[in-house]
Amino acid sequence: MDEVLIAGGGIGGLATALAVLRAGKRPVVLERVAEQAAVGSGLSLWPNAIRALDVLGVGAEVRARAVADASGGIRDAAGRPLLRVDAAALRERFGEPIVVHRAELMAILRDALPDGVLRSGVGVTAAEESGRVVTTVGERHAELVVGADGIRSVVRRAVAGEVEPRYAGYTAWRTVVTPSEPVTEFGETWGRGQRFGFAPLADGRVYCFATANAPAAASGSGVGNGVAGVRGGAEGHDDVAASFVRMNDELAELRERFAHWHAPIPALLEAADPAAVLRHDIYDLPALPRFTAGRIALVGDAAHAMTPDLGQGACQALEDAATLGAVLATDADLRRYDALRRPRTQRIAARARSMGRAGQLSARPLVALRDAVMRRTPASAQLAAMASLLDWAPEEFAPTA
Ligand SMILES: Cc1cc2nc3c(=O)[nH]c(=O)nc-3n(C[C@H](O)[C@H](O)[C@H](O)COP(=O)(O)OP(=O)(O)OC[C@H]3O[C@@H](n4cnc5c(N)ncnc54)[C@H](O)[C@@H]3O)c2cc1C
Questions:
Q1: For the segment 145-185, what is each residue's pLDDT rounded down to a tens digit?
Q2: Is the CB–ligand 1 distance for residue 313 below 6 Å?
Q3: CA distance 145 to 298
Q4: Among residues 91, 116, 266, 274, which one has the fewest Cβ atoms lying within 10 Å of its Cβ?
């Protein structure tokens, strides 16, 4: 009965399995997708997440993928700076932010687990506070059940009932390209109702992302569109957050929207492969009243799916995992996990949503005002605003004297 059953083998579930092992317990991860495809996109991991990865024993491997001395900020469509990030000061104060390929991070987490922990192709269909779990291959009883099953979590029903994800009003594209010229900068460019961002990966490829205001699943041929396999296997995670993924014509739409923006955006779009463009509508969760109930705890998007505007969703899942491990290793009091994680993640989710609203403004006067305020924000103020996100320190795994 010392089994910790983790529903979902995404970043949150795999990281939780590592934390559970560190706490001296026996994790079993049930992942409904049989084989996770290696396609995907980039992921920013901020210094708070790297500290969590250190606790899980894989920080050094992720750090090895850092791109040294990259600098950047937010610009307007013509390439004029709106908000500069003092990258050197950020590194010195908080540590290195890193952009990895998602598939790489998943592989690092998976490879760090002993054989047999991850059971792919098994879905969880129901969970109860008692620790009873119904799966697609039978029933199990666990000391603790962790819902790491994403924004449309099944496990969450036993903690918070039916909770409807909220559409944020915009859609997002992601792709990874091999550019003809090296890119050493990262950054976002904010236009009217649409944004484009890029960040170099350690191997010379560049992670690109873009957003645009759109009704949910409205354009094109809508949900499914004959890519059901892609929807389930595009990344093996946050697929359930997608209202649809269309590959055909996505690159054409991106080029139409952004190919006239500043360099290197046109060249990046030129180098993109139409078959490797992912599109997901963006949803988040309303604030849950609790993250735990009986023998159940929620981590990651199941607990606090947030819009990607701060690049913190997976980072917070990693913090959740490290914190849950520390709680299990000490007093095993899930109320403490809830108290440590719920206020912080819900504050960050609210901030991400506001940031998304500002980024997606489309009315000319509001965009002009926004841009003027950003131009006047000193880099030092920008850095100070990041402190509450990035200053996080992990809990101790042993009780302090
Ligand atoms: C466009 C976009 C950009 C983003 N960029 C960033 C970024 O730069 N940095 C960052 O930190 N975050 C980012 N995020 C957020 C990040 O992707 C998520 O927060 C993170 O993937 C959540 O991980 P998770 O393991 O909690 O959930 P998921 O990734 O959703 O994983 C859940 C897993 O559970 C499985 N599953 C689902 N239901 C069941 C079931 N019933 N039984 C068994 N298995 C099940 C799924 O197949 C999946 O593998 C971004 C998100 C989006 C949409």
A1: 999 999 999 999 999 999 999 999 999 999 999 999 999 89
A2: yes
A3: 8
A4: 116
